[in-house]
Write a structure and sequence with these properties.
The complex is a heterodimer of chains A (114) and B (111). Chain A has no helices and 11 strands. Chain A is mainly beta and 114 residues long. Chain A is globular, with a radius of gyration of 13 Å. In chain A, the strands form 2 sheets. In chain A, strands 2, 4, 5, 6, 9, 10 and 11 form a 7-stranded mixed β-sheet that branches. Chain A has a 4-stranded antiparallel β-sheet with strand order 1-3-8-7, with no helix packed on it. Chain B has strands spanning 4-6, 11-14, 19-25, 30-38, 45-50, 55-57, 60-65, 70-75, 84-92, 98-101, 105-110. Chain B is mainly β and 111 residues long. Chain B contains no helices and 11 strands. The mean pLDDT of chain B is 93. The relative contact order of chain B is 0.34. Chain B is globular. The chains are: A mainly beta (114), B mainly beta (111). Chain A binds chain B through residues 31, 33, 35, 40-45, 48, 50, 56, 90, 94, 96, 98-103, 105-108, and chain B through 4, 8, 31-32, 34, 42-46, 49, 87, 91, 93-104.
Chain lengths: 114, 111
């Protein structure tokens, strides 16, 4: 059974803290993605990675950075958390090779920044 | 204007009803199209891909109209378990990277 796991389901942080969100997939997928999901806005792509150590900005990268040191792991970093980064964060992975490859999602991390 | 637009609903239908969802996209370079389903407090999961010729999977039928930049999903004989949010998803280009999600349409199926 394919699996994408995220380090926390719920996280509460204070403004200005550095926040790490971890994502691990066991499917040997090349592509990994970080999204945030907000009511009425849907999922918005923050960053994606198509290979180890490779990363590309998505639609809303400001205030975020990422790290992919190993194929199975993709980390999202909030250098200095702000209240407008309170959201649901979803990690996903997919194979390369076809534009119809399914994205598999983790269960999400609900982050609250106070 | 959003790149992928959906009617947010909610759609409230009785069991056994037929319900249709529509979605429009603005980027003419869009290559691949999907419907994902998201249950309350869960992650999105692929429901079906949408091919140019249209495709059917049991009670679900998806259609694509490239000329009008329009995608649809038809659910026949609705079940209680179909209650969820349905996300229209468009992939721009062929690399599999630029994926745009609609905000979703909520469906409630009532007994």
């Amino acid at each position: 059974d394919v699996k994408v796991t995220q380090s926390s389901r719920y996280l509460v942080k204070r403004t200005g803290e550095k926040v790490f969100l971890e994502c691990v997939q066991d499917m040997d997928h090349e592509n990994m993605f970080w999204y945030r999901q907000d009511p009425g806005l849907g999922l918005r792509l923050i960053y994606f990675s198509y290979d180890v150590k490779m990363k590309e900005k998505g639609d809303i990268p400001e205030g975020y950075s990422v790290s992919r040191e190993k194929k199975e792991r993709f980390s999202l970093i909030l250098e200095s958390a702000s209240t407008n980064q309170t959201s649901m964060y979803l990690c996903a992975s997919s194979k390369q090779g076809s534009s119809y490859n399914e994205q598999f999602f983790g269960p999400g991390t609900r982050l609250t920044v106070l | 204007r959003k790149e992928v637009e959906q009617d947010p609903g909610p759609f409230n239908v009785p069991e056994g009803a037929t319900v249709a969802f529509n979605c429009t996209y603005s980027n003419s370079a869009s290559q691949s199209f999907f419907w994902y389903r998201q249950d309350c407090r869960k992650e999105p999961k692929l429901l079906m891909s949408v091919y140019s010729s249209g495709n059917e999977d049991g009670r679900f039928t998806a259609q694509l109209n490239r000329a009008s930049q329009y995608i649809s999903l038809l659910i026949r004989d609705s079940k209680l378990s179909d209650s969820a949010t349905y996300l229209c998803v468009v992939m721009v280009g062929t690399g599999g990277f630029k994926t745009i999600f609609g905000a979703g349409t909520r469906l409630f199926v009532k007994a």
